[in-house]
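Re: How this chain folds, sequence and tokenised backbone to follow
How to read it: Take the token row as a discrete description of the fold.
Start of record: The labelled sequence and token lines come straight after this line.
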Amino acid sequence: MNERADHFNPFPGLRPFGPDEDYLFFGREDQTDELLRRLRLHRFLAVVGSSGSGKSSLVRAGLLPALHGGFMAGAGSRWRVALMRPGRQPIRALAQALNAPDVCGPPEDDENLALWHTLTETTLRRSALGLVEVAEQARLPAGENLLVVVDQFEELFRFKDRARGDPHQEEAGDEAAAFVKLLLEAARTDRVPLYVVLTMRSDFLGDCSQFRDLPEAINDAQFLVPRMTRAQRRRAIEGPVAVGGARMTPRLMQRLLNDVGDNPDQLPILQHALMRTWEHWLDHHRADEPLDVPHYEAIGTMGRALSEHGDEVYRELPDDEHRAVAERMFKRLTDRGVDARGLRRPTRLAKLSAVCRAETETVQAVIEAFRRPDRSLLMPPAGTPLEPETVIDISHESLMRVWERLKAWADEEAESAQTYRRLAEAAALHAEGRLSLWEDPELQLALAWRADNRPTADWAAIYHEGFEQAMAFLDDSQRARDQERLEKEARRRRELEQAQALAREQQQRAQEQAAAARRLRRRLVLTFALALIAVGAALVALGFFFSAKKQERLSDSRRLATQVLQHLENQHDLALLLGVEAVGTAPTEEARSSLLSALEHNSHLEAFLHQHHGAVTSVAFSPADSLLASASRDSTIILWDLKTNRPLGSPLRGHTHAVTTHAFSPGGDTLAS
């Protein structure tokens, strides 16, 4: 037996419950009854709640089946429901919803279907009662009611905000106001049984003041979706499990209830985790085994299941081309907005292919991967044919808040869109003569943005008109910058060439100066050499002169020494004087010897050496022959300068008796006695 055939998956995942899934929709019965009561009283109902509170599911799987079941008193059970989302062209979207075959339109095979759309849209735009007139023209049978459900009504505010301040979209801003007036007038009329229901995120309530009469209408007929109690959440889990023919362990039930807590944003994530847990249980459970905690933990629990699931699908895509298409597709389908309030941005398949720059078949393959029944990350649900006009959408805003990869993509897209809007606005100002072309660094950043993102007109139309003008402005800015760079480079080259020419001139001048310096050095060297030669010659001549003089003195000294010897016997004093003269002329060995002989033969030496008070006992010559030391019996030694024949200073004292012997050291610096 096929387990999967016996146990279909009763949890829709992120997508809202559909009108045909009311048998799986548990825990909201009291809220559904309250919707019926308020709609009957006011014929206008605003279902308001935080993101993830289950507004769409409450209307689709709670209110609509109850209406068809005849549970609204006095209205019967025959209802025609025009289900729509505002998008960027709310009146056209309303016309298409009204022209559905089961609402007010012709059969699907009608050859004049396009004409029907045109006529309906024209009627809606004609006056504030356009929606009433369309209902009247449809000639509804007696007992039938027309209900217009505007899901994701907050898209209208983003649409109007984008139009504000953009001269190209002024009419779009007017269309948003006209669309609101159509809905309000339709709910007020008694001409046809016409009802209006809106679903809107509560964080956009303040934006309702942008439209006349809308805040008053919402105040009169608003249903703020309350938090589900723990008991209601338990029924919302137990009911589908029982319908699917399975059981759940109490511990898993407690774990799920604890994990979801009181945060309404966790409800769609809970549905996704239950869908994934069920799929894992189908593939891995044993016979009669209930859903249990291990099955829940295997898919990453509520904390990681959705993000890991998105990454798993992304990685399973066949190649990088499909992954690039997936990135561009999700960037188009989500809108972080200037106020960081994430919005879904449903897009027709044909438009999506153009924005993704890919063949329709490639885009379809990526969509199919993300909308499989066991994933349901994209809408419409699996099985719905994908035609060029099919609207593609993410299943729930929580995907933007939980899937980490998509959060990064949304940040990149918001930054890219901001760059483009700034560029488009600058181009418009430049066209009016109010702004000059861009320069670096802003220009370089814009060029890098264009190279990285390769924007197209289809993509740019989402954020701002004037794509061609913006790209032309960017090209003109680049050309102007490049031309300025060329001119700067040409100036730089000219300045460089001039500098090089000046350097060559200076180098040549320096070379000439160096050559002149070398010539001067050669002349100086030659002159110096000649001077050295002259000096050398002079020194040689002077040497010869001094040598001759020296020889002359030596000869005179020897001659005087000879005369000393000749006068020793007869003329002692003359001999002594001649000896002293001989030593003073040149202290030759002959002169010293003759002087000593004269001194020895002179008994009256003290008469000559008058400085002594006693007889001279000994004399000694210094090695340089410049000094004579005389010793005496008076206990003193006197040093004589042989050049002047005069004593040097006072007598040297120290002996207590006669000095008999003394001598100079070989160096002449010491005298021993």
The mean pLDDT is 87.
